[in-house]
Amino acid sequence: MKTPLISIIMPTYDRGDLISESIDAIINQSYNNLEFIIVDDGSKDDTINVVTEYTQADKRIKFFERPKNRPKGANACRNYGLELSTGDFIIWADSDDIMHPKCLEICFRLINEHSSDFCRFSKAVFFGSNHNYLISEPVVNAVIPLDIDNLYDMISNTIPFNTCTVLWNREVIGKERFSEVILYGDEWEFFSRLLSNGLEGISIDSVLYYVRKHENSTTGEFWSNDKIRRNSKVKANELVIENLKDKDLLNYKMARYFIGSSLFLKDKKVYSVLIENIEHLGFIQKMKLNIRYHFNFLIRPLYKAKRAVIKKIGRNNE
């Protein structure tokens, strides 16, 4: 029986100083029947030279540049890499992170044992060089089934789905692709779309991926209130709401989550799109959602401001 081929797809941009560690972690996987597709997003540093040395030494590595007719960004590179790939299974990786050496072996074995569409696993965060984290021997304590009943847990991030922490059976991806207009919240939108198609997978708590945090990461930019990242998260919310509505999955519990998301992002667009898509809910439920939003958006800030003024007056009178 032929061993299935796993495709690892990695977008990269100006990672000449970090990508070697990421590549080494993949080519040294204990599961070695793989093709490794790296797609460059127009790097201006020596990324291309670094990757070329690897392609000359290992024929499993294939290097491409993002076509000029596709928009700049990691998602266009991920989609392009998927279209070029030939593997039976797909996993995406980032060019500044480290994959556990047994990641592919463990995930493939469990997918095969449980006849699953995907295997989701955990990640750990590290800072700086790879000397600042410790790769431990993974222990699979429990294999938890995941299906469309877990969709809320995925959307609310109770069960996180990150770009690089899921091995997918290629067949279940079908024609679905990353949105190429979203620069943050992209995997959340894409993977919620996949799970809402009725897939059946598994989740394990084993740490099989190590995410490098640094000032140039997209997460860091989002929490620094980068306008592009924040607007992308808003757009991702809008797309998830519309997908849920189209599939008759936008229930009251989901709607409450998006009210909270709109308040967190401080953007009325999410609330407006939600209201447009909940006409199927009952009158009482819609009223509760409107009250929840307007109370938190309008009244609570006024209440907090009033308390702050009272405190300030009290301090001045001491």
Automatic annotation (TrEMBL):
GO terms for molecular function: transferase activity. It comes from the Bacteria. Residues 7-163 form the Glycosyltransferase 2-like domain. Pfam families: Glycos_transf_2. Keywords: Transferase. CDD domains: Glyco_tranf_GTA_type. PANTHER family: GLYCOSYLTRANSFERASE, GLYCOSYLTRANSFERASE 2-LIKE DOMAIN-CONTAINING PROTEIN. This is Glycosyltransferase family 2 protein.
